[in-house]
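Appendix B. Chain record.
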Amino acid sequence: MKQYIEKNPGKSFIDLVADDTSFAQTVENIFYFSFLLKDGHVKISKDNEDMMIQTTQPPEEKDYQSKSAQLTHSVVKLDYNTWKDLKEVSDLSFHMEEELQQFKKRRGGGSSSTQTSTKK
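Structure tokens predicted for this chain:
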């Protein structure tokens, strides 16, 4: 998901997480996104009426110690009827399954070289 956000800047939160075929996948997308947000890899900014996603550099430990960074948590309430409304307004360009397949293909080349170097 992080690579998708980096490749496609300026996506709204709804466009990123809503899946038109699966309520469960939408919930899973929100779950994945919540860790990117909590760890400081992304931030949400308001642009007119949309919540836009931007990538950021995560804070370092010294930032937390100096209190220039804070741990925060976000809560999203989503029920089935709201999901049905969201999928109507989303551009639905992000699909987690497709991103996972691309990630596995990219990682597949790297994992065999790691296995080779481990055996030596």
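Further analysis of this model is presented in Appendix C.
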